[in-house]
């Protein structure tokens, strides 16, 4: 191809530029904006000067097309990468949001629990014996506790505590409620937030508001 080009560059000198088309026409030939059968293309084989101009424009045109192809390839790759990253980020955020919501729901949704103290003795205060309460435990969560008070308990307002000691100085959770009688038994419904409680042994205490009567029961948090 170079030999042919070199041939036409020297074979037909036309220093006076007789019959030469204008510059815009030569540029249109180089950029393929003229039909292949356009008769003006024949002049290139007869004029070395016009062929030289044509070849210069042609080389510029080819270089410009190659740059556009490379730019398009880079732009396509960048778009695909952004789409992949964006899709991955959206999926991550969706999953993360789902996990966070699930965790919050699991942590915040009350766990239903029942404790029956009806037949348990009522040893009162910190200096007395501890009531016998077997195999009672609560989870380290938000607990909606339904509590049956011991026999002969009085109605009225109560405070329910979970404490590390029997002096109620290390309280980890507490709630206030009012006892209601059902079929001769007093019931309390209270919500206790035990999410900060570490697994171990505690005391469950009921404090009657009117006379500050406090009763303690052994409890484990798991």
Task: Characterize the structure shown.
By secondary structure, the protein is an alpha+beta fold. The chain has two domains: 1-108; 111-221, Immunoglobulin-like (Sandwich), CATH 2.60.40. 36% of the residues lie in helices and 28% in strands. The protein contains three helices and eight strands; from the N terminus they run αααββββββββ. The relative contact order is 0.11. The model is unreliable at 123-129 (pLDDT under 50).
Characteristics:
single chain; 222 residues; alpha+beta; Immunoglobulin-like; 2 domains; eight-stranded mixed β-sheet; rod-shaped
Number of strands: 8
Q: Helicity range of the residues?
A: 25-40%
> Order of strands across the widest beta sheet?
1-3-6-5-4-7-8-2
Instruction: State the CATH class of the largest domain.
Output: Mainly Beta
- Do you know the CATH topology of the largest domain? Immunoglobulin-like
Which consecutive residue ranges, at least 5 long each, have pLDDT under 50? 123-129
Termini separation: 86 Å
């Amino acid at each position: 191809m170079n030999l042919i080009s070199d041939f036409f560059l020297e074979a037909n000198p036309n220093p006076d530029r007789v019959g030469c088309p204008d510059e815009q026409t030569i540029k249109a030939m180089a950029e393929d904006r003229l039909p292949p059968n356009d008769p003006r293309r024949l002049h290139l084989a007869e004029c070395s000067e016009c062929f030289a101009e044509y070849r210069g424009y042609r080389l510029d045109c080819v270089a410009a097309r190659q740059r556009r192809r490379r730019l398009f390839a880079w732009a396509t790759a960048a778009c695909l990468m952004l789409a992949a990253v964006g899709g991955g980020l959206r999926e991550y955020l969706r999953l993360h949001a789902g996990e966070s919501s699930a965790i919050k729901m699991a942590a915040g949704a009350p766990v239903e629990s029942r404790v029956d103290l009806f037949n348990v003795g009522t040893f009162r205060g910190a200096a007395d014996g501890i009531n016998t309460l077997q195999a009672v435990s609560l989870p380290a969560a938000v607990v909606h506790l339904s509590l049956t008070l011991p026999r002969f308990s009085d109605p009225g307002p109560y405070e329910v505590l979970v404490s590390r000691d029997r002096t109620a100085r290390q309280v980890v959770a507490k709630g206030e409620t009012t006892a209601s009688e059902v079929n001769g038994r007093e019931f309390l419904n209270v919500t206790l937030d035990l999410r900060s409680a570490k697994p171990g042994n505690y005391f469950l205490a009921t404090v009657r508001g009117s006379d500050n009567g406090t009763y303690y029961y052994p409890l484990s948090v798991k």
